[in-house]
Design a protein that fits this description.
DNA-binding, about 110 residues, homodimer, about 0% strand, mainly alpha, about 55% helix, 434 Repressor (Amino-terminal Domain)
Chain lengths: ~110, ~110
DNA sequence: TCTATACGACCTCTATATCAGTCATTACTT
DNA sequence: AAGTAATGACTGATATAGAGGTCGTATAGA
């Protein structure tokens, strides 16, 4: 966004992040960890943990994933050992798809 | 991370983002969308789409979620309508948990 | 009760993510 | 085979995320 035009997000994305943040907070408390402790484990400032738990969309995705992982939240409902397998699956699929997408006609159905 | 101490991520987080990026690319192609088109729909620069599809951990979580949603990838394997429900569930759970987490005294095992 | 501390809400500063381009190469479409 | 569009890999400028702190309040434990 060039100027100070604030970025907008769909309700779905906002809700998803809100849910993730609340889940992280719940799991942290369940595991009896303080924000400070979680911050140290993740290697980030406490202020960042606060933003993550509030569902701030501007946090780095790597930080959010890392924090979620530390408190034991599975990403994509996949166990660690299955991720590599899924990656291979998707990459196999990618080799079957065209390398570039050329638009010729209208094909896309907008669902907004 | 004050200086140029590069942030590190666990293999699980890296794999998860790698998988997400590859899945986004695959879904974009399946839907016959170009990077440019996806960028415009998401309201970001094309270079950001490239980084997202490469699994760059430093992308904003909001941008990644938004892009994933546009190409039709469900977050947390939850349908849009279920998210609000899950949010309430977690927030109910939160009210039952302590507001602050005080570290209990170190359990002393100084018997060596 | 009393007290150490976890938390929320701020702040400033610096590193960097994002934007908006360019260019060369590749790969679709006709 | 030619033409055109898509992609990958860059760039510089600028907005902003994250670091690291402060302060006041609230809370869990003793």
């Amino acid at each position: 966004m060039s100027k100070s035009a604030k970025r907008t997000y769909s309700a779905y994305s906002s809700d998803a992040m809100h849910l993730l943040g609340a889940t992280i907070r719940a799991e942290r408390k369940t595991k009896k960890m303080s924000q400070q402790e979680l911050a140290e484990r993740a290697g980030v400032a406490r202020s960042v943990i606060q933003r993550v738990e509030k569902g701030d969309m501007t946090c780095g995705v790597g930080i959010v994933f890392e924090v979620a992982h530390i408190v034991g939240i599975p990403l994509f409902s996949a166990e660690p050992s299955r991720l590599a397998h899924h990656i291979r699956q998707v990459e196999d699929k990618l080799t079957l798809l065209p390398k570039t997408i050329h638009k010729k006609k209208k094909v896309i159905n907008d669902d907004f």
